[in-house]
Write a structure and sequence with these properties.
globular; 8 helices; 31% helix; 3-stranded antiparallel β-sheet; single chain; 2 domains; alpha+beta; 4-stranded antiparallel β-sheet; 9 strands
Length: 259
């Protein structure tokens, strides 16, 4: 099998086209539709790294949302591209290794520390199309193994692989800063799935300079804006800011108020 060594272990740098990875997962899972659903779910959770060709196509209202012009560096490899809810969808053409995300995306926000997150507007309608979609094979093997699926000799990786997003290339001076680099030293600063929603809400409420806060204060501030329906940041339906997630976010920003 491509990307394996003579001792049947997997190269830590083995990237495969989406269609090939789908065939591999189907062989393990037994059903193509379920295998593909598992891949898409794990991509959305950031458990499988992905990459694409350098020709991201963006369709949207560039006049109203100028940050759409600088989305490639942060979009490439970002888990948000695979997230689906009532306001967004992902159409994956496995035969051509192309995918299109459609939703209310208006560009990326950032905190000046290397972290970025997608921003949404209920009035927006944006589509992002990528080609040459590739998945990290080692991550796929790990994801299947966690589900208890039998992988035979391929379950042993040649080297451990961190479950972090693909390192983004640096944008131009006018573009939004790229995502944090994916090394073990920066892994601890990566925003989790809950924190990725807390970050834009906190930015909207407190601005660029986040004050020292307790987790409860941040949680109540977000809940109050949600209840009053004055929060412009688009959040998932029925989403609630968890206390532990608020604490982790404040710790990573260095803004956790001492007791």
């Amino acid at each position: 099998m491509a990307g394996t060594t003579d001792d049947n272990t997997i190269s830590a740098d083995d990237w495969r086209l989406a269609n090939d990875e789908s065939a591999f997962a189907t062989e393990i899972v037994g059903f193509e539709e379920r295998a593909r659903d598992l891949l898409l779910n794990d991509l959305a959770e950031g458990l499988i790294r992905w990459d694409c060709d350098r020709n991201l196509a963006v369709r949207g209202d560039f006049q109203a949302y100028p940050l759409l012009r600088a989305t490639f560096a942060a979009t490439r490899g970002h888990p948000f591209f695979w997230r689906r809810d009532e306001h967004s969808r992902v159409d994956m053409d496995w035969s051509t290794n192309c995918a299109t995300w459609t939703g209310r995306f208006i560009g990326f926000g950032w905190d000046g520390r290397g972290n970025s997150w997608p921003n949404f507007d209920p009035r927006a309608s944006t589509s992002l199309t990528v080609s040459g979609v590739r998945f990290h094979h080692g991550d796929v093997v790990k994801a299947l193994t966690r589900r208890g699926l039998t992988l035979g000799g391929e379950a042993a990786l040649a080297a451990p692989v961190s479950q972090v997003s693909l390192e983004s290339e640096q944008p131009s001076a006018t573009a939004a800063p790229a995502l944090a680099t994916t090394t073990t030293t920066t892994k601890k600063r990566r925003l989790g799935s809950q924190e990725q929603w807390i970050a834009p809400a906190a930015l909207e409420i407190y601005g660029e300079v986040l004050p020292l806060l307790s987790p409860a204060q941040l949680q109540r501030a977000i809940e109050a804006r949600q209840k009053a329906k004055t929060l412009k940041t688009s959040l998932p339906p029925h989403w609630v800011a968890g206390g532990e997630a608020c604490k982790r976010f404040l710790q990573k920003q260095g803004k956790l108020r001492p007791r």
